[in-house]
Predict the 3D structure of the following.
Amino acid sequence: MAAFDYRQALEIRDAFHVHEIRYLFIGKSGAILLGFPDTTQDADLFVEKSVINGERLVAALHDLGFRLTDQEAEEVRRGKDFIQLKNGPFDLDLIFAPDGIERFENAWQRRVEVEGFTVCHIDDIIASKQATNRRKDRESLPRLLSFREWWKQNRR
Amino acid sequence: MQSLEEFEWQREFEAAARRPLEQRLRYAFIHTYKPILDDAEFRSFDTMAEYRAFCRSLPDWLGYGD
């Protein structure tokens, strides 16, 4: 599997736009879209959990080239809390209930648009990482907190 | 008072802001094989607590544990 790239990010953006999916980039991939210079391995998407959004998400994943069995498609449609996809052209994590964020709607109201990508606000990305509290999150937090300070002062 | 490390970070943020998004993403995504994590094509968890429990079973050096 090659690394996720810009073209694939555009494919997600465009497919999710066509299918009118409510989603937000979250995690380090979200921070990178906001301008955070760092590396990550895959894209993390916070997806609104609703019947219609689930239906649309399955259709978009199919368009993007993910090979879902009927059972897997049903689990995506249902919006299980965390789904890890490695059965398509790139790795994708779907998160329907990220730690540290109470409701999708709250994060949606605070979202940031970056060239058509819908991205969680840096406060939500940090809140999620703080709540998750994995060792790799704790290691990246000081720099991410510093980025938040810079981003809020320099946001254009 | 800003530490030297924070000062360096701020310079990195400023440099990144001057790069177009396409270039930023080109340098941001890498792929390395992660044992267990990369060995299944599909995984799903009913709750985040279940996912966290799975993360704790991964090799410690991956950093997914507590």
About this structure: Chain A touches chain B through 50 residues (CB under 8 Å).
